[in-house]
Amino acid sequence: MFNVRMRSSRQRGEKGVHVSGTERIVKEDEVAHTVERLEEVRARELACESLCGEGVPRRTAERTPETLLGR
Known about the structure:
Blueprint: H1 21-53, H2 58-63
Pfam families: BioW
InterPro entries: BioW
Cofactor: Mg(2+)
């Protein structure tokens, strides 16, 4: 039979640090949370822009509770 030896990532010249499965899940959760937060911010910006288009002052639109923005 052939003598096959796996090369480590360092031997292959790859850069970076090994990430365990648990660390990967934590990172995915952080990314998901960040994406959710960005979506919330964008939704507020769009609602604010629509209120500003209706003649509501920008500062008032930014402070308007989400219940008044149709959420």
